[in-house]
Sequence to fold (171 residues):
Amino acid sequence: MFINKTTYTKKIFRESIFLVLKLKGALLVRTFAFMLIIIFAVTLGIYEAYKRYIGNFSWFLTGVFLFWITIIGFAFFFAFRGIRQRIQVIYHGNEMVMVCEISDQIVTQNLLTKGRVEYKYSQIVKIIESKNLIMLVIKGNLAVMLQKDGFIQGSWKECKDFILQKCRECK
Fold:
């Protein structure tokens, strides 16, 4: 049996966002490319309508592009900050702490709310690692986050080998 205790500090929360972005990377690239095409088309339309007032198209296009990139960046920043603030309100300013027991099945328990969830190995789709975190991707757009240095019993290397034996479909 392996036991992991993960405390969702600001650093861990930020890293978990990047793991989700890594997981959803292809979708995000397609969405971003689609947004850029729309922005370019709208910009071209505005330029054609007002070109006698605007002047040089390349400067206009650069300005509009930078404006939209800035807006998108702020949108991501405020969205992530809002998620973090909601979590702090839910947990009354305390950090969320999850304990995960990995044996015949995967059992996660939130130490603050005492909520408990059980997963079978057949539900695991993928394992993604970063510097400090492991994300076990579960069917149904769910994930179990584990801090690499949060193992109370066992180590991540042994745990990973164990999970890969139990779940042959995991990548």
The mean pLDDT is 81. The longest helix spans residues 57-90. Residues 2-8+96-166 form a domain with the PH-domain like fold (CATH 2.30.29).
